[in-house]
Every structure is written in C-alpha cells, then in structure tokens.
Amino acid sequence: GFRLDQNCPNPFNAQTKIPFTLNKPGYTTLDVFNIKGQNIIRLVNEYLIQGEHYVLFDASNLPSSIYYYRLDSGGKTQIKKLLLQ
Prior knowledge:
By secondary structure, the chain is mostly beta strands. It has no helices and seven strands.
C-alpha cells in the first residue's frame, strides 16, 4: 500500500535515504519542512509508477535541527520526522 518509511540513517549528518511505496501510479511530491512549518525543499515533483521508491536528501547546507518530510500522492498524505545532527 501507500507508505512513507523512516529515513535511514536517523539521526543523520549531511545525507539520508528516504524510502516510500506507492500503491498506485500518480503525481507525487515529497517535501521537507523545518520546525516552523516552512517548506525547505521539494525532493520529488513528478508522476511516479506504483511500487517502491527512494530519494537521497542532502542536507549539508542546513543547520542541525528537527525536520519533517511529507509524501503526497493519489490523494493520500503521510508525514515523518527526521533529525539532522
């Protein structure tokens, strides 16, 4: 089904992998937000096929903090938290 997995490693320093699974093909976005709710970066912005996917997030230019990432596809949304050290 539709699933946003925990990034790995977490906590991380500089780069992390964010895996997710789509239960059907569709336009998909994956955004990262700071703790104030401001959109920092859009990592995915495209039509994706059904199945397992992942994206590498390079946060080497961001300060250490808690961030949130949100997956939207096919009218479904999931959010997870990550920690940049």
